[in-house]
Every structure is written in C-alpha cells, then in structure tokens.
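Lab meeting, action items carried over

1. Structure of the two-component assembly. Owner: GW. Status: complete.
Input record:
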Amino acid sequence: MDEFELIRKYFTRASADPDVLVGVGDDGAVLRPAPGRDQVQVIDTLVEGIHYPRELSAADIGYRAVAVNLSDIAAMGARPRWMTLALTLRAADPAWLAGFAEGLFEAAGEHGVTLVGGDTTHGPRTVISVNLTGDVEPGRALTRSRARPGDRLFVSGHPGDAAAGLELLQGPAARQPDAERLVDRFRRPAARLELGARLAGLATAAIDVSDGLYGDAGKLLAASSVGGRLDIGRLPLSRELLAVAGRSRASDYALGGGDDYELCFSAPADAAEQIAALAAKLGLPLTDIGEVVAGAGLSCVENGAPVEYRHAGYLHFGEPST
Amino acid sequence: MDEFELIRKYFTRASADPDVLVGVGDDGAVLRPAPGRDQVQVIDTLVEGIHYPRELSAADIGYRAVAVNLSDIAAMGARPRWMTLALTLRAADPAWLAGFAEGLFEAAGEHGVTLVGGDTTHGPRTVISVNLTGDVEPGRALTRSRARPGDRLFVSGHPGDAAAGLELLQGPAARQPDAERLVDRFRRPAARLELGARLAGLATAAIDVSDGLYGDAGKLLAASSVGGRLDIGRLPLSRELLAVAGRSRASDYALGGGDDYELCFSAPADAAEQIAALAAKLGLPLTDIGEVVAGAGLSCVENGAPVEYRHAGYLHFGEPST
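Predicted assembly:
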C-alpha cells in the first residue's frame, strides 16, 4: 500500500463541519474561518536522509522546509501568510540552528510569511514539519478535482532538473556550471506562487510536482475522475539537464524524479493564448505536455506512438505498482 | 541552553504583519484571518520513546497526539476546529495505523475537530506533529503575559497524577486500582477546553501544564514580567497519588512531573468567588496555590517557611539550571 492509499484508508472521514470546503486529499485544505475569507492550510515534512541528503547545508534545509510548503500553497492558488514549525533534532547545535533559521526566514521573507509558533523536540534524526496557512478569495481556491476531458495538461518550468541536481549534489561533478545550476534547483526550489494565484479562474485543476511529474499528473487526473495522455516529446527539458544526462535519462528525471516543485495544471484548450501570455509575463515556461481524456489513468506517447512508462514517482512507503 | 531559550534565540523575529496578534512564545499564536474573527494556531509533537513509552497502545498515542494540542488551545481560551497531521513512521503497519486513527478521531470527535490534511513520511522512529486551529472572539484570546502582582495563582485538576501514571505504566503495579487511575490520566489527558473558554475575561494569564507545574508557572510569570510564590502545602494532590507515592514524592510529581495538561492561571484576588463557582459548575477542582508578586522568579513556601525547589520541569534539551 503506498502513502496515497494509506492516507485515504485511515485518515479520510466525512466532515460534518460546513466550514471545511476541501479536506484531506488535495494539496491543501480549504477552510472558511469567517464569511468573506477562505483559508488554505498545508503541512509537509522533511526527514533527514529521506527528503534531503546529510550533505545539504542547514540554510538550504531551512529554505526547503518552507519552500515545499509554499509550493502546496501555490498549487491551491492562495497567498501564504503564517507558518508553524515542529522541529525534531538530535541535539541543539547552535551553528546548525543559526543556519537553519537563516534559510527558513529567507524563504519566508521572500513571500511575506510570518513564523507564528513552533515546537522543538528531541529525536534520533532531524524531522522538520511546517504547517503553512494561506488565504484566498472565497470560492477561488484551485483544487485537483475539476479537470475535464478536452482540457490540455501543462507543466511550469523544467521538470527533472532538481532530481538530477540531487544526484549530482552527492557526486564529484557538482562543480561544473551546468551541474551547479541543477544542484541549485534542488537546494532552492522556487515555489510558483504568482503562477498559482494567476491560475485561479483560468486552470481547471492544479497540483504541485513533488513526487515526479508522471505520478503527480496521475493524482490530478484520478482526483478529477478522468484520464490523460502525456506526450514525452513535449517535455520541457532544460539545456542543462540535456547536457548532463542526455535525452533519454533527462526524460526519466522529468517524469519520475521528484523535487521539482513546479505546477502541473489543466486548462481548457481555448485558454492556450492566455497561458502563453502568462508565461511571457512571468518569464516562466508553461508547456502544453498533453491532454485530458475521458476514462482513467495516464498513458504516454512519443513521436505519435504509445509508450509504456514504468516509474510511478516517489512513494514514501512500499513499492510502486508497475 | 534549554528549549525555551533556543526557540527564543533563533526563531523569534519581529513580525511586520498586523494580523499576527500574538506570535512565537505563547501556548499558541493569535491570528486575525478576517475582521470579526480571531484564530489560534498551535503545534505539538510526540516522539516515540521521548514523549511516550513504546508500551503505549496505538490508540492511546493517537488520542494523546490530539489531546496535547487541544490543551494548548484550551490555554488560549479558544474553540478547537481543524487539525493537520504530519506522521513519520518506520513502516506502514495497518494494525498500528488503524489503532492510531481510532484514538486520533476519538479525541477529535469529543470536541468537534476535523482532520483537514496531513503528510506521511518514512523515518527511523515515530514522530507525530499535529497543528490545531481554533477560533475565538476578537480580542478574547488568553495569553501568558498579563498576570499582575496581587493576582492569585490557580491550577486545575490534580497535577502529578499523569507523571506518576507514566512511571507506573512501565512497572508491575499498573493493575492496582489507584495505579490504574493514574495511568489513565497519562494515557488519556483531558484537555480543559471548557475551563479555558470560561476563563477568557476572568483570568489574567494562563498556560497549559505540560512540562511540570513549577516550570510552566514560571514561564507564565516570566512572560508577564512578574514573580510568584507557590505554597506547596496547597497543592491539590489526588488521593490516588498520595496512596501510591506518599506526600513528599507526590509533591515532586505535582511540581516537576509533566504531562498533566491541566491549566495554570492567574486571576485577580477578588475573582475567588467566581472561580469557586466555576469549579463547582465544571466539577473540576480549581485550587489557589499561591500568589503573583512584583519581581522575577517563582519561590516556594511550605508551612509558612521558604523552601527551595530544585527541579525545573521537563526540558527537551540540555539540563535544568538548578
């Protein structure tokens, strides 16, 4: 059983609270604390040695802990505001804490987020959970569940860069300029907050790409009760990724690598022009990578022919079912 | 450096956000998501082997993970509403998860709390963080910082029971009736939500007793920039605790044991009658244990004579400074 099924099985219960507009199962919850304002809450955890290598600097870890949550807020089309931090540490090392706090406040400061509370505990390995609260105009939160057959599928930025960067980070090649740019994409994910905010009302569904584009696009489609077709030839592979990994491995990184923190979203076919204008405005590639179809599952095509993709993205428990 | 100083040093920064009414350093943050409604957010973590023994059942762990956060919400005088859960597990054991979820939803259901999101990750030891959101009438949240010289200090319930229960839980005596009642106080803490809600407007300051009454009362006094005098002879020691531990050890459990999840609060001396009426209404002892004085620090008296208390409560890092 993978993490997705596990959460669904044990932690999804019907809510009697009319102010819970979206509960467990999306990138974030949508809540209504007061009439006239909706709120988005997300929580995401980094475990040392699982979500980042021991080699990562304390400042990068602090930055990432906030950025991965900002990415969930972006995927909901909300504006981030407040966060709480649960920090489990082996020991209170002042140098590590100073660096961690520096990175944490850097990421928070870039988006006007205030740390409002926390809890520090002792444990055998570093575990960092951040709960982030955002706000959004009533009824405007983006969810995963409204993609429709005929919609186009898009992805922002260059998926695969961060996953390649993570591998390079631990190897001897990390100092080459192309490699360095990929490593930076892992160290400092750029949450797509402005994109998310502008997609509200334009996209039909969105998800942040944390576990691999193929797997996360599949989750969006499943949540919308539709299927999809992804054109591998359209994947926006970066020059650096192609230089370092070659085309075939680059596609694998882009489809299954994880840690991108880009947005994958669906939009009606006639929104193509608006999306192109948005990409130009933000200076961020927004690439049409396929289509939403009736049915279930995400299939892949390459050069017009069906291909089977066998990697299902990063799963926290168990093995991907192939 | 203890946890308290550590958090203050690295994670307290001035906020530019006018909607953050109370930030890091109290039992919870007080936020204003929209005019006309204040919100309280708390986060608390349980680490296996540190905050609970391996012997505790999965259902009790789930219950406690919610209850310790409910207790923070109670200390702020708020009504709990929504929670998110970050769960780090060694493996996805369906029996453990089923039990954990049962206890979690039991505690949540008792107070109308909805689980709205979560994140499950893999790690070497179980770590459970719950972020709980509550709401409160604007300006009515209870903080730690408004105790005034001349106020009386109170504690609810029977501090020390849970700490004794935790020790008994791991020993052979846990099945004796008195011991069993103490063990239950550890297994199933009763967050004092109704008390907290009714103290808003009556108490001047409040804190939940999680790390030991002496230490937590000291934090309330420090946050209020006042001192205090605690009368050890007035401690409301339960019959069961006295039977199992004897008077002297019972006082130690009550002052330094932790895990009580009672409320310690200050109130003007002329509120004594109202507080007695509240105790009767709730069927919960609310005991005057001392007074707030000008100055700093918490001193103890017993039979009218000063005594030195040397245990500073549970600290997550480092050693108590004696």
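2. GW to write a short summary for the group page. Key points so far: Chain A touches chain B through 69 residues (CB under 8 Å). DSSP finds nine helices and 13 strands in chain A.
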